[in-house]
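[#protein-structures] MJ: dropping NDRG2 isoform 18 here for a structure pass
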Amino acid sequence: MAELQEVQITEEKPLLPGQTPEAAKTHSVETPYGSVTFTVYGTPKPKRPAILTYHDVGLNYKSCFQPLFQFEDMQEIIQNFVRVHVDAPGMEEGAPVFPLGYQYPSLDQLADMIPCVLQYLNFSTIIGVGVGAGAYILARYALTGLTSSIPEMILGHLFSQEELSGNSELIQKYRNIITHAPNLDNIELYWNSYNNRRDLNFERGGDITLKCPVMLVVGDQAPHEDAVVECNSKLDPTQTSFLKMADSGGQPQLTQPGKLTEAFKYFLQGMGYMASSCMTRLSRSRTASLTSAASVDGNRSRSRTLSQSSESGTLSSGPPGHTMEVSC
Ligand code: BEZ
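AK: finished. structure tokens for NDRG2 isoform 18:
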């Protein structure tokens, strides 16, 4: 009886005769960790992520992925996506040997180069396909929350998800400004510094808190509303006016400049910098009535919490601070 033998079966189903692979275009971009080369196959498909691949050690994109991406059955899938095949630095075909002593980027740094590739291509979302070291790099990239391009991440910092998905004219305008900023590289550096910020370590009643008058403003639908509420809880309530603006998102100075101006006027007035004649007549009359009402409830927090009603467009403070109303 013939002995059973283990045989290796290699599936061979390459492209059909006459089927030509899509044209590829190779690009290089400079990143803070050196230049990176990548090859793009296909054209971007509206509302679809790009497939981005990262190869393993000892390979490049072609030796790692060509058999898979040129497999016949794979065509049905990949024809629906643009593909971006990244070559780790120095692994691209024809790459020169790095000079002696060259410090090769760490895997973390290789992951940090990916946003530069996506930014260059203006792609915001990807489906990552990685092998070995490439899988680590893509996982590291996904872990750091870099699932969007830098402009999209910055937009997510500036505006709430509701505002972004509403895609109002304002959002379109700011998306356009940021995405096409000629100084996007500089913006990214500022963004990185922001993400590496230290905690302010405010402590109410402690040594580290602001001693000066503060007006803290946040939209009630702002992406970082909780952080601003928490900040207010750590400030000196006798020095702090906290204004949570109703129906306002991440950038009240853009969406509600009138209400903000009015609140700022009162804040300055509280410091003696604005004559009351500068206040609107309506505001002054309402201030008078609401301030006396506020004194009834004098045992509440001493911070001036300014709540704003969207319907009347008024601002009123909690006791016993100044009552603020905004007539917009
Ligand atoms: C592609 O179609 O994505 C592809 C073609 C050749 C090599 C690797 C990928």
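MJ: nice. The pocket of benzoic acid is lined by residues 21-22, 41, 62, 65-66, 69-70, 78, 83, 85 (CB under 6 Å).
AK: one more thing. Residues 1-7, 281-303, 307-328 have pLDDT under 50 and may be disordered.
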